[in-house]
Amino acid sequence: MKRVMSNNLKMFDITLRDGLQSLKQVVPLEKKKELANFIYNTYHPSAMEIGSIVSHKHVPQMDNSIEVYNYCVEQKFNTDLFMLTPNMYALKMAKKEGIKNFSFITSVSNEFQLKNTNKTLDETKAELREMVKLLDSDDKVKIYISCINECPIAGKISDTDIAMELYYYVYNSFEIHQLCLSDTCGTLDLYSFNEIIKQIRGSINIKRISLHLHKNATNTDTPLIIETAKLFGINSFDVSAISNMGGCAMTIDPKKNLPPNLHYSDVDEDYECFKDSL
Questions:
Q1: What is the torsional sign of CA 116, 95, 172, 128?
Q2: Predicted confidence (pLDDT) per residue in 148-175, tens digit
Q3: How far apart are CA 198 and CA 149, in angstroms?
Q4: Which residues have CB under 8 Å from 35's CB, separation 6+?
Q5: Are 234 and 211 in contact (CB under 8 A)?
Q6: CB atoms within 10 A of CB 24
Q7: What class has domain 10-274?
Q8: For residue 248, how many other CB atoms are within 10 A of its CB?
Q9: Using one digit for the tens of pLDDT, what is the confidence trace for 2-59?
Q10: For the chain, which residues make up each domain, given as ranges?
């Protein structure tokens, strides 16, 4: 049974990428295909991030992302299929495979960016400027801006510094369809969220903003942020079909519990009946 999204909410499913990459055990290709079918046929998301093109050495979980993508195409999934391409090499490879929708990554923390991509923020911006030149007019791009509120390496980042980084992508004519604010540590509070949105909402169509939140047991503001975002007019949320899974294993101490992704039901209670139905 397919779900019809209520209240114009757009669910961007990240189970196959951000969800699975946090697992130590590599999921076999056939299991990923089964999971893709389950996600599509149960939740019918507005978009699915199928995987990422990255080094097998660093993220073996993503090694067969192109095969999973091709399977979803063959199954005629009627939704936007995205691939995370963290650099120029990955984007060129994805383009050769006929992929049309891409996720790029950056952050508001130089320390995080160096650990995650081995590039500074300035180097990342320079590469992104070249990457967008490769895009066709009908390609879609989502860019993750990580460390909204806090960097797992450098600590708390001021709301003003965050807004200044966001302004860069608003004012430099990047061909980006969606600017995704990513609360990497799951510590974003309602006050900071309000301040950040208030500073940028006059400069960008709020419908281009999406949220990638993580659940942190010590942060009770996350449900309030979700509802406040809806009031601001933000209607796109990153979600996972599997509860209590996800998080940035590349940059957060693996000895600590990773703050998991939002489940569909965290954004819209109509999905509660499907929670943990795998």
A1: positive
A2: 999 989 999 999 999 989 988 887 756 7
A3: 15
A4: 15, 16, 27, 241, 278
A5: yes
A6: 8
A7: alpha beta
A8: 21
A9: 444 456 899 999 999 998 987 888 999 999 999 999 999 999 999 999 999 998 888 8
A10: 10-274
